[in-house]
UniProtKB/TrEMBL annotation:
InterPro entries, A to Z: G_ENGB_dom, GTP-bd, GTP-bd_ribosome_bio_YsxC, P-loop_NTPase
Organism: Thiohalomonas denitrificans
GO terms (BP aspect): division septum assembly
Annotated ranges, domain EngB-type G: 22-196
Protein name (database record): Probable GTP-binding protein EngB
PROSITE patterns xrefs: G_ENGB
Lineage: Bacteria, Pseudomonadati, Pseudomonadota, Gammaproteobacteria, Thiohalomonadales
Keywords of the record: Cell cycle, Cell division, GTP-binding, Magnesium, Metal-binding, Nucleotide-binding, Septation
HAMAP family according to UniProt: GTPase_EngB
Length: 196
């Protein structure tokens, strides 16, 4: 598992603080509380990795984790209902949009969505942007352990149908950090995107 080597590299709140635009980056996005930190911890087999992104002052930054000299995982700020001043929000939204639009080495986006609350407005915004810009996108329906097998499977089917109809090309899977469900599946997507 190459993701085990992931190490905190840097935080950025402006383009000039990002590392050189080279190699491969995969970004993780999701509404606050979607389970992004837990997923990053499980994928990298490191309990405390994403805790860094949760330390006060870093939650509105893009946090980068290096796998090797050419490959990085990128934790995007959780969007949703952050209690921050409007001006601050505007600043990081602009930076985020710019990062997504301009970053050449960004090869794909993992969108984390709570399986019990699929495709809220923010998720749809993200998917629409990805579809418009041809960005490969993979949705993790997180906390799958919170639903029984039947309802989880039908949510998966329903989301897959919506993606096929409205955001073609995007893929989706069930995921549980708690049960370590779907970890190999998402790692395979990362491998493909990062040419590992
Ligand atoms: P983030 O805000 O997106 O980084 O979300 P966190 O990873 O911090 O998770 C938010 C909450 O959901 C925490 O209370 C986690 O313990 C819980 N959580 C995350 N992943 C899972 C999961 O796979 N199963 C269950 N049952 N709870 C989870």
């Amino acid at each position: 598992n190459p993701y085990r080597r992931a190490q905190f590299l840097t935080s950025a709140n402006a383009p000039q603080h990002l590392p050189p635009d080279e190699g491969f980056e995969v970004a993780f996005a999701g509404r606050s509380n979607a389970g992004k930190s837990s997923a990053l911890n499980v994928i990298t087999d490191q309990k405390g990795l994403a805790r860094i992104s949760k330390t006060p002052g870093r939650t509105q930054l893009i946090n980068l984790f290096e796998i090797d000299a050419e490959r990085r995982l990128v934790d995007l700020p959780g969007y949703g209902y952050a209690k921050v001043p409007e001006a601050v929000k505007r600043h990081w939204q602009q930076f985020l949009e710019r990062y997504l639009r301009e970053r050449q080495c960004l090869t794909g986006l993992i969108l984390l969505v709570d399986v019990r609350h699929p495709l809220k407005e923010f998720d749809r915004q993200m998917l629409a942007w990805c579809a418009a810009s041809g960005m490969p996108t993979h949705v993790l329906l997180t906390k799958a352990d919170k639903l029984k097998r039947g309802p989880a499977a039908s949510t998966l089917q329903q989301v897959r149908r919506t993606l096929d109809a409205e955001y073609p090309g995007a893929t989706v899977q069930l995921f549980s950090a708690l049960k370590r469900q779907g970890v190999d599946e998402v790692r395979e997507v990362l491998d493909r995107w990062m040419k590992l």
